[in-house]
Design goal:
This protein has helices at 28-46, 50-63, 68-71, 73-80, 84-90, 101-110, 123-133, 157-164, 179-188, and strands spanning 15-18, 114-119, 141-144, 172-176, 192-196, 213-214. Helix 7 links the parallel strand 2 (114-119) and strand 3 (141-144). The protein has a six-stranded parallel beta sheet with strand order 3-2-1-4-5-6. It has 235 residues and is of the alpha/beta class. Helix 1 crosses helix 2 (50-63). 39% of the residues lie in helices and 11% in strands. The longest helix is centred in the first third of the chain and has 19 residues, at 28-46. The chain has two domains: 10-26 and 96-223, 3-Layer(aba) Sandwich (Rossmann fold); 29-93, no CATH class.
């Protein structure tokens, strides 16, 4: 059942952890890349029809969904014999922010909160998106799950992140568009966990059962109040 999205109590939040694709960046770019670009390039590279390519690559995608391999451009380059990084760079000009995401991040940082990007994207993909959109200048820190050896869906990721990026779980807000990730964050004890209903800007809103949800991340800012003081040891 969809929970009512009561606004967070910003007076009780020092740290904001944000997912990347589908939370601050439009997921349409990634969906189109894997559903269309990769099968088409696979078909051309291997001399098969587009339907044959889809029947080959889609089951491969499903077989590793939710693992680091699913997000790993090196894994897919080897498995499909395609230069995935080069293919992504060729389309980087089509990357886009979700509505008002940058402005939301800017307001939070201006109020004194630490805003951290936490993504399952491979470091190579993160580098491409950062180079195109200037992500780094909008965040206090950015973390890919790959160096931690576990995707955000898995319980072991969260204590490893906390070692690198200390945060008070009772004073932290986390936002993501994936139910398994949200469940793992809640199980770790993060107090404020919100879901995104519209990871694709033009797409319909989805049901995110069990979590308070908003269409776009900027809708959480309505209750933001006075600036908060930096918490010692949280940098």
């Amino acid at each position: 059942m969809q929970e009512a999205a009561n606004p967070p109590d910003w007076d009780r939040i020092d740290t904001v952890l944000l997912d990347m694709d589908g939370t601050v960046l439009d997921l349409e770019w990634d969906m189109r890349f894997w559903r269309d670009t990769v099968p088409r390039r696979f078909a051309a590279q291997h001399g098969v029809t587009l339907d044959e390519a889809r029947r080959t690559v889609y089951p491969l995608f499903q077989s590793v969904h939710g693992t680091l391999d699913w997000y790993c451009i090196e894994f897919w380059s080897r498995r499909l014999q395609l230069d995935i990084a080069a293919m992504k760079r060729a389309l980087r000009h089509e990357l886009a922010w979700l509505p008002q995401a940058r402005e939301f991040i800017g307001r939070l940082r201006a109020e004194g909160r630490r805003v951290v990007l936490v993504t399952n994207a491979h470091p190579g993909t993160l580098e491409i998106k950062d180079a195109q959109l200037g992500l780094r200048r909008h965040f206090d820190a950015m973390h890919s799950s790959h160096p931690f050896g576990a995707a955000k869906e898995h319980a072991e990721f969260w204590p490893r992140l906390a070692e690198r990026e200390p945060f008070d779980r009772q004073r932290t807000l986390f936002v993501d568009d994936s139910l398994p990730v949200l469940q793992a964050a809640r199980a770790h004890g993060i107090e404020w966990v919100y879901a995104i209903r519209r990871p694709v800007s033009y797409g319909p809103a989805r049901e995110m059962n069990g979590f308070p949800a908003v269409d776009f991340v900027h809708e959480l800012s309505g209750a933001a109040r006075a600036p908060v003081a930096a918490t010692p040891g949280m940098a």
